[in-house]
Amino acid sequence: MPDPAANDVVGTISLLYELALSMGQSLDLDANCDLFIRTLLTRKNLAFGAVWLKASALKNGATAEADSGSYRLVYANPRVRAREDRLPANHPLPARLGNMPFFSVAANEPGFAEAVTENGIQGGAYTVYALGDIGFLKLYSVLRRSAVSPVEVNSLRQVVAKFAVSIEGCLAHRQLARQIEERDRAEGERRTLAMVVEQMEDCVIITDAAGVFRYVNPAFERVTGYAAREVAGLTPRLLKSGRHLPEFYAALWKTVSSGRPWRDRIVNRLKNGSLATFDTIVAPARDEKGRPAGYVAVLRDVTRLMEVEQQYAHAQKMESIGRLAGGIAHDFNNTLTAVLGFGSLLLETTPEDGPDRHAVEQIVLAGERAANLTRQLLTFSRPPMPEMRVMDLNALALNATHLLRRSLGEDVEVVTLLDEHTGSVRADVSLLNQIITNLALNARDAMPRGGRLCLRTAPVELDAAFCAEHAGLAPGPHILLSVRDTGTGMTEEVRRRAFEPFFTTKRTGKGTGLGLSVVYGIVRRLGGCVELDSRPDAGTEVRIWLPRVEARGDTLPVELEEKVVGGRETILVVEDEPMVRDLATRLLRSLGYSVLEVGGGEEALSLLRRYHDRLDLVLSDVVMPRMDGVELTLQLRQERPELQVLYMSGFADDAFAERGLNLDPRRLIRKPFTKETLARKLREILDDRGSGANA
Amino acid sequence: MFLPHASVTEILSAAATLNVSPGDTLMVLVAEHNAPDLDELRNALRQTIPRFFGGIFPAVLSGARAHDEGAVILALPALEPPRVCAVSARAGPSGADLALPTADPCTAVLLADGMSPGISEFLAGVFRQLGPATHCVGGGAGVSAMVQRPCVFTAEGVFDNAAVMAFAPWRCSLGVQHGMKRLVGPIVATRTRQNIIEELNWRPALEVYKAIVERDTGQPLTAENFYDSGRAWAYPFGLVREGAEDVVRDPLAVVDHGIRCAGGVPENTALHVLKGDADHLIAAARRAGERAAAGARSRPRAALICDCVSRRMFLKGRFAEELSAVSAALRPIDHLEPEGMLTIGELSSSGESVLDFYNKTIVVGLLCDA
Does the predicted interface ipTM exceed a cut of 0.90? Predict the structure, then answer.
């Protein structure tokens, strides 16, 4: 007959055995609790089990909750039964455990109601065990009608104590896992930071407190040319350029030594000897304990940026000079029109062997020289409205060099490297010719003992980065036109000012200082960009980029000279400047025309009414007080729609645009004009009347 | 409703007579003999009934009779469409993260692949989430040959290693009994692997078990005759549960020197080898019916019996007596005709205690109005 008591003991031992082995199988707190409490619930036929821990045992650091001594529910099975998940430190449950390590209380006993922190508790009994000093284990049986006997509760005491130790192990593991996670996170941040520093475009230098290099990033190596191993043991003095006074560096050290960051623009010398400008921040670095540990410097190479800024400033300056020159040129033009015109008339009537002949010739010559200067000045500031055609640049370059060969002299070898795929540009033939001529003649002057002039063309595709650094260009297909010589070259100072009008290094009388300025103005007008490279004794290269067009261009731009032809038609001259009006009248009459003259628009309209059908053409100034030439034309055409008009003006084309005037360049003659030019323009218009063309 | 023939057509026409509303769920229990193709049945049901679930079982029960052929269908009001949950074959809880409804009242009818090794862990996870307020009743699906195959279904598909669940806003009164008695024990399952006991008392499990069974029967027990001779399922294991009957685990087969059971056996748990007799088992079935009847507090709508297939094997010709005993116990209540199935393991949360997987047990669930 088996002994029931012995059977009970064996049963209890086997339960304790199972419970003891169910704990500690996982270092995860929830899994550890789950294995232990599920076994308890199943074997002891319990309805609920929960683990409560002190917030302080769960904490990562000091928190208000942890400091308060409160408890948190960390495991409940079934989960849905849990009503509370936090208990204050003074809750009756832990308070009661302060007096005894475990207790059991049934529904009909005092203290039961205070123990209820779950849903749906009706009857039954709680058994509560302290889990060391970190929390407590709470079990609930719905089947019990009375408290669990002390012996039975006591039978689980040791295994619950072991469970508490296993929980401490889980918490320690969790703490360790968090520390590892935190360390990994910090490591990750450090790796990210290092990656950023390694990959950033700015140079980064870290030195020790004595200023000796401890780290330089790849950007430093790339920009300065110094490898990290080369600078080991050295200081940033290695980069000194000699461009700053000792006081500059003293201020730097004074600032960082006082714990403040230093910011300024600094010029350094690179390994290849060239200079580069850096926006620089130097800051003192401190170690984890806040002690000075060295310095960190971040250097941004702004050399190229400064060049772009200088280009922009230069462009602005050229624009201002252009405006000034354009304004002056207009007034000169009126005066020169009179000087040249009257000079020409005087020359016609002065006998070739007369005593005044030489003086008159010199007047006309000086006037022509002045007119040429003024024209160039206008071309630089506001190049004339071009007659745009699609031009094969190679054909034009060949033609131009052919024409220039004699001017260049025999001791200048002309080399043309024209890429057959160069293509065409949309431009005015005369303007392109002027570019090549000006550059070629400059090159010749730079090679007094002869040399080689190389003219090169090539198709290029410009990207956004290139265009960002070259004002005036837009990304896309372009043509590069390069004119390079082997001449004396320029100093940096000369190079910087080369495009300024009237800036010249040639002897007095040898140059006007407008050649490159005119090139600059034309290129800008054509939507391109010009750049000049030169070093003393190393020659000069001027590179021009012009927008490339797909259409096939004309190959032989030729201008034909025409004979001077007069006429018998009646012409009304409208000009507010008496000298010019007088000159125009005389020239027209000398060409055989009948001439009427007035000083303004109102008079012109009045005259028209009187000579309605007798007028063939109106030669009018554009900019006049009260009524400008275009307004006058509009009103004249109300009376005589077929009436022809030729404008004369000393203003540049842009000046018309600023006044809202849209003029056909074919119906415009520029002051100062010659008799021949005036005659040709008049015949072009008068002979074209039959075609119905009108301004 | 019992259908003597479980063709797709008959199930569909019978379902039509139940007037299943769109908010209801149709439960379909199919007996394995002449059973329709479950995928075909599922596709056909999808055409007319949006919510359904079911499984294939060794037999279906109607009143006091077990039918190897036929089907039982039952319309349940539903809190939500039936769920399909994977029952992981790996160790560890697999049902703890399910977002299950927690209504009051709520009864979960649960059909699971009875051959799935992870079923005990799955149910532990479900219980931790649902708690005792939701009563669970159901059983393991499968076929009497005890080979695993897709055996449970919903509109979504036919599955193995899965459980299908329907939640009804009903109360459930449960009776759970088996009637087996302890023969030898306690013995400690010193090494287990889910549903395989590898060691008992630190010795090869088969060696220990064989000695016990052979001593009691006087007949040899080998790996070959382990299941077919009926000796193994006559001597199941009982997992100790304080204040209640042991939870039975039927031995099914020999695996190396271990024993594969119908349901998980926790490592280091104490168990007994049980033995039963027909009278005790039939008496237990009656008690299960009586307890379910006694617990009913409102009008019963259905009586669901989940009776272990191994009980029929054990009781043989007297199995009908067991069903009669249950029917008799329930008859005072609205003359309900109990219906259900023979199961490969039974599922029940038996009142306030944990949801567990049983073998050789009869579960009687009275599904009552809220």
Answer: no
